[in-house]
Predict the 3D structure of the following.
Amino acid sequence: MPTTVSKKNMENYDVLIVGAGPAGVSAAKSAALGGAKTILLEKQPTIMASKPCGEATSQKTLETAGVEAKPSIVMHRADAMVFAPNMKYVHIDQIGFSINKTLFLQEIVAQAAEAGAHIRVREEVQEIGRSSDKLMVVKTSRGEYKVNVVIGADGYNSTVARNLGINEKSEPIPTVQYTMVNCNLEYPDSVRFYLGNEIAPRGYAWIFPKGEKLTEVGVGVRGAPAKQHLDRFVKLFEKELGKGQIIDYRGAPVPIGGIIEQNILDGAMLIGDAAGMVVPLTGAGIHSSVVAGLFAGEVAASVSSEGDCSKARLEEFNRKYDEDWGRRIKKSLKVMQAIEKLSDNELNLLQEILKADDILDLANGFEIRKVAKKLLSHPIFAMKLARSLL
Ligand SMILES: Cc1cc2nc3c(=O)[nH]c(=O)nc-3n(C[C@H](O)[C@H](O)[C@H](O)COP(=O)(O)OP(=O)(O)OC[C@H]3O[C@@H](n4cnc5c(N)ncnc54)[C@H](O)[C@@H]3O)c2cc1C
């Protein structure tokens, strides 16, 4: 439960953001641009992509974030291939980016600083409570702050959520990833996704080329040991990955169960992974977190200037986010729940029916009704898929 703290010599800010991932840096930028006295706190010693990530995203993400697609940030341009268990694939001819996420975050944080935000690294938020005058009080490894609004952008195992007594969590999928060098990729200009109950039960495996030398190879699985599946996957691609060496091996949960309901309280918001703002079927969270950050910062700045930081007023964030991203996340969750029930034979069959556009629609939660209608006339998928998507 939230504690009540009251101390002197605190620093005062309008908006305090916890965590400098894609959600936090974007929130800091937009809160500062909105005129709020803003501070961003990051527990790591540097602003960097400290959590493992495939770092694959769309051109649109960079546009949304206001980051130029320069060579230092965009390490690779690649199309996509989605493989069924029988190794037949659908080719998606749309170019996406493999980015250097650290430089991407640093670019946005520089924009936040230019807009007037204060950035502090190596400062871990430890406790959050409320003062007697109902403001938020944030205790860190270095000091204390009194603020109008706290934005928790501190990832899946959110300290902010825990301190505010929010126990609700989006369902996680455990993922593990190797960054490898010296691979000999058959498709060096495609990001590859592999589906199947053998390869990655209730998840998928991936091979993402990154620049000339690096390859991200990972799996996300549910109800099965992730590391074991990753090693089996690497073995399956012996010809391409056998000579590769692992230079980074990390894992982290990805919240794919949709957005939590309790993401707003009086004086506080949770965004990004902390609130389950990830596209469930793909596990992609960079774009959705940037958008969340931009909206959260904007709303926090405006409620703060009005002097009403109540839950009811902060709900404006959910209204803005739900219009597009919230709906997409809901639809993608529906698709994921339907697809994870399919057998490998059914996935093979589906690969023959679906076109690239259909896959993009399903994965991103765009036009899922259109795809569902297409499947309605199919003897197997009418019942197994179409009805649950309509
Ligand atoms: C293996 C893997 C592969 C992925 N691949 C992709 C991909 O290719 N494309 C894609 O779009 N998404 C991918 N994702 C998802 C994506 O990485 C996340 O959805 C996204 O980074 C979430 O951003 P965020 O800002 O909410 O949180 P995070 O990126 O988790 O950032 C949270 C920040 O908060 C800081 N922090 C935590 N606690 C505190 C505290 N108490 N005080 C101060 N700071 C704190 C952390 O150090 C961190 O910097 C992947 C995830 C995983 C695990």
Summary: The radius of gyration is 21 Å. Residues 3-50+102-170+257-314 form a domain with the FAD/NAD(P)-binding domain fold (CATH 3.50.50.60). The CA atoms of residues 247 and 371 lie 40 Å apart.
